[in-house]
Amino acid sequence: MTDIGEVSHQKSSSEEELEEAEDVAHRILYDPQKWPYLKKYRILFLVALPAFLTPLSNTSLYPAISDMKEEFEATAIIINLLLGIYIIFRGIAPIFWSSYSDQLKTRKRVYLASLLIYTMSNIICGFAKNAIILVLFGIIQSIGISAALSLGGGTVSDVFIPAERGKAYAIYLVGYFIALASGPNIGGLITNSLGWRWVFYILAILGSATLLLITSFLPETFREPEEKFTSKPHIIRIIRESHPQSPSEESKSFTQKKSYNPLLPFKLLLQLNITFSILSKSLVNLVIYSQSILIVKMFSYYYNVSSLYLLFAYISPPVGYLIGSFIAGIYSDRLAGYESDVETRKEREMKKEEKKRLMKEETTEIMQEILENRDIIYRFPVMRIYVAFYSSLIVPLFIVTYGWLTQIKVHILIPLIISFIAGIGLQGQSNCISTYLIDANPGKSASALALSDFISYFFVAILIILVNPLVDLIGMGFTYTIMAFFSILSIILLVIVFKNDERWRGVNL
């Protein structure tokens, strides 16, 4: 990069053409965002496999709880502890995985380490002779698989340009939602036919297969962002690199320069736009998990229906999540892409003006002026918040309606349809906030998503403790009225972020 005041010498047109050709070749070879679409989507498929295992590892165990209690002569508290601990470490562990990935600039090594831990712990859980071993290695299993979602979001940011990320992230989550909807049924089928231990054995087999595929076919994707943000009051300076390093070169150079600080992601909370976005997403996840936790209670307590309806109850919200994720993701891509194109054209014009002044060998003061004028902020990430806001507007009404119609025992199909529609809004909001965190934190996207998981699952852990006693105390209607209030609060946070994004982004408190 040319220092301020340094004047470059004149080059022949042939030399400039050669340098430009070398620059293009270098970018195509080493920049994941320049890779062919077939290669990009192959990578997306590979990283979606661990995401599929994330909910499957939890929901497939629900039907096995009674069998585990009987074999170990354990109380419900011990077995439920296994599920509760899974949630707690599902939130804590990604902070360490993602900070390692972002700081040491590697995705693949973290995938391999986490999947190896996951696979081995599943095997030991399957052979467990007492509840203590089961709970202990259940913790280790959750630590292993917890890396998947934050790393997957980081990989999406590495490989796809901003105008493609919303759709890519929605595709990435397809397997997650399939596992969320089918996990209890798969676990019930395995438990009834082979026994509960085979749930862990099959998870270990799937983990081994995923580990083998990622080892063989996933390249290192970590991408040093072209836009390096340095904090400055109300301004983000954008500095361009002439040649992005290859992922392997970046990893080697980085390990020589910096040590690993597992708590560094928490520094992102000093940026108010990040803090408010994460709080909004956490409140959304609170509503999503309240639906999942209360499904069995709702239909066992309020309805005397067949298990077929219970199957539909598990499937209905995830199908809504899937549709909402695609609609919001694709639409936000269009808006973000338009904004990005406009801003890119503006920057090209400024670079042309800078080149003209360099050719004229103008003074250091003028060069300083040019560089100051290049201190612009890219607005396209905030378009995700715009779409998240409109996605969220349908949620409060449908959530509160869902709770009260369930309480007065209307026909079962009506709450199922309402939960499906609410799911569209909930996941549309969640998808857009996640992609905003990716776009607004180049080079730290995995850490930003891990931080959002940490806070979300902290809220969910509290929800698991309180929600069933709360329903017993005040009923389903008032419980979901409270959830609707949380949804309204998340919308208010989105409005605050949208209005203050330019002032807050990249600026620490």
UniProtKB/TrEMBL annotation:
Subcellular location: Membrane
Bilayer topology term: Multi-pass membrane protein
Domain Major facilitator superfamily (MFS) profile residues, every copy: 43-502
Alphabetical list of InterPro entries matching this protein: MFS (IPR011701), MFS_dom (IPR020846), MFS_trans_sf (IPR036259)
PROSITE patterns assigned to the protein according to its UniProt record, in alphabetical order: MFS
Residues annotated as transmembrane: 43-65, 77-98, 135-156, 168-186, 198-218, 283-303, 309-331, 385-404, 410-428, 449-471, 477-498
Pfam family, one: MFS_1
Gene Ontology molecular function, alphabetical: transmembrane transporter activity
SUPFAM superfamilies cross-referenced by the UniProt entry: MFS general substrate transporter (SSF103473)
Keywords (A to Z) from UniProt: Membrane, Transmembrane, Transmembrane helix
GO cellular component: plasma membrane
Designated name of the protein: MFS general substrate transporter
